[in-house]
Amino acid sequence: MSQHEIRNIAFVGQTGTGKTSLVERLLFESHAINNLGHVEDGDTITDFDDQSIHYQHSVEATPVTLSWHNHQMNFIDTPGQAELLGRTLSIFPAVETSALVLDAGSSINQVSERLFQFAKDQKKCQMVIINKIDQHPDKLLALLEEIEQRFGAQCLPINLPSQKPAEVIDCYFEPNPEQTTLFSGVDEAHELLVDQVVEMDESLMELYLEQGSELTPEQLHDPFEKALRTGHVVPVCFVSSDTGAGCELLLRTLAEIMPMPDEGNPPMLEKNGQQVAIDCDKRDHTVAHVYKVNVDPYMGKLAMYVFSRVKLPRVVSYSLVTAVKRLKLVTYITCRARNVMRSPLLKRVICAYW
Ligand SMILES: Nc1nc2c(ncn2[C@@H]2O[C@H](COP(=O)(O)OP(=O)(O)O)[C@@H](O)[C@H]2O)c(=O)[nH]1
Ligand SMILES: [Mg+2]
């Protein structure tokens, strides 16, 4: 698998907005797991530790991996309690996309604002996910307006809730103007998004003016990436992790719209006092970032890395750019639901024991 198929995404947001349930639903929809766990039952994949089960909210940032239509998605479910935010902020170097999850029934609070601003400062591509649309269909429009007000007019829906409670309507990939949404025309939403994206590309803009809104997602791909990188567009998705509404479209958006490692804004590293960028495709010595270290009661010390560049799979000793000491990499595992899988691939979120 090349880095073109890899997506690294952090699900962040205030506690209780449904991040853990959403990650669980996405694992289920993509057939990574066969049983859908629930936070209340203490059987979700990412809230697996005793404390998270006891308190019924995530205490650690937990990575999982799933496959979807030839894409490998590395998700990190994060804690949203204000006092645990340090654990969330520290994983940002491991991802290109920050997905801010909001609860359809609540207004935007300080934690969400802080996370949005932090992701912006870190030059992450961003999206906003409005969850629990099954519970609060009457509050969705007001929340969308609030998002625009608090985060800016570049936050534009890529899909909209349907009048049927368990459905979400695509406004980007294959928009069908016949479909009726809860509050705005599909055409209107599509046009707003395309208008925003084509501003990134003058020649496409000319074509667009001649061609109307008939630009294909393929034509829009590059300007869309640029718009995401520069914060010129922030897609908004509606979902319900409870009913699964919008989850398929969310996976499609993550795969086809959100950036692969090279398309995001990879953090610059320092070499001999100079800022250097990393060419992920180059076969040079391995560069990795330890974004989290755990002490696991069964496994011992567990470091979680994100690799920016991997020279070769079987070497056991790596000099890690951000680690103070040399770590001995004994084995790799990727967090694929609860299975352990050996595979050192480029830009995967990877754990290692030592
Ligand atoms: N009705 C409804 N409840 C949800 C939805 N998503 C999550 N919940 C509930 O919201 C609560 C908090 O969910 P959780 O996933 O722990 O939120 P987190 O703290 O952001 O990870 C739990 O009781 C979930 O069952 C949803 O889409 N609809
Ligand atoms: Mg959680």
TrEMBL record:
Keywords carried by this UniProt record: Elongation factor, GTP-binding, Nucleotide-binding, Protein biosynthesis
Record InterPro entries: P-loop_NTPase (IPR027417), Small_GTP-bd (IPR005225), T_Tr_GTP-bd_dom (IPR000795)
Annotated PROSITE patterns: G_TR_2
Coiled-coil blocks: none
Domain Tr-type G, chain residue ranges per copy: 4-262
GO BP field: ribosome disassembly
Stretch forming the signal peptide: none
GO molecular function annotations of the record: GTP binding; GTPase activity; translation elongation factor activity
Protein name: Translation elongation factor G-related protein
Gene source species: Vibrio maritimus
Lineage: Bacteria, Pseudomonadati, Pseudomonadota, Gammaproteobacteria, Vibrionales
